[in-house]
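Appendix B, record 7
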Amino acid sequence: MENNRIVVKFGTSTLTAGGQQLSLPRVLDLVRQISTLNSRGCQVVLVSSGAIAAGKEALNYIELPRFIPAKQMLAAVGQPRLMGFYQQFFSIYGLSSAQVLLTRADLSDRRHYLNSRNTVDALLDHGIIPIINENDTVATEEIRFGDNDYLSALVASLVEADLLVLLTDQPGLYTGDPRKDPMAHLIPEVTGPEIPEDLWQAAGGSSNGLGTGGMFTKLKAADLARRSGTLVYIASGSDPDILVHAAAGEPLGTRFPALITHLESRKRYLLTGGRSQGKIVVDDGAARALAQGSSLLPVGVKKIQGQFDRGDTVRVLSPKGKEIAVGLVGYNSKDLEILLGRQSSEIETLLGYTFGDEVIHRNNLLLL
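Structure tokens (predicted):
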């Protein structure tokens, strides 16, 4: 397949096929498509709405006030029901799935961010389908993503996805609302570094951020993801084998090519993000290994300077004090003082736990 790591987002309208309750045939067909991609070597992350709809159905569509606790209650009822359907349907194709609930705080705090990425990576490495949703039952207004379109773009950046597919009830982005404007036509591709104002208006909002829901949030998500190095499609969830066609790079819906590579995105994050005052001095062997693309292991660490927490961006110095790299560190400075020069196999014995073999994984390291 052309795209090997894929994030797909299912909206409520896609899962209900435009109705009031979950359409199990539609859900099963989408699961079948993901299983097809998995069998072809793709790693797929699913960002799924639908918990509130499943909760409403389970409670016979009771009338509730329009405020967050009521929505949280519905999500609490509906989320296990939705996951039950996913687990049942994925098992038909011999696949396991896992629930990952996130809030904005999980992706804004660097330690939580690192933990979230490591968890999703571990699931993918073991052939398990991560199913991600906003943690509606605990998210307050201050830590909400606001919509799963935006969450899916952040997840695409989190896992460095090759492709993000935003499924909707429309074939893609139009020059106007096709339900109201007979002259509106599909926009096959958006390539410029800035999305024109008329497209924001056509999506139901404006470039200054006004407007919510529908195509507007998908356009915002597409813009965010393409700036993080991910190709994006906005397409119809009802089209046959839409995920398979998108993964193959076929022309469909509205396409948003990535504006930068994942490596460039990671460089920007590491170079422009806040750095701690912490430094890690490595030996000559580790310095050579880093230059050849290896991760930094505790056996190669000679000295720790300053204090830092897990997930902080720290400087890596050669034995002569030259700054040779920056990276997101997997252990805090207190732990690393214990691990100096030790083998990775000793980490759990020395600390009583382990976050992995690496002090800094090569994926989180930028050579200078």
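Remarks on this record: The two ends are 33 Å apart (CA to CA). Residues 274-367 form a domain with the Archaeosine Trna-guanine Transglycosylase; Chain: A, domain 4 fold (CATH 2.30.130.10).
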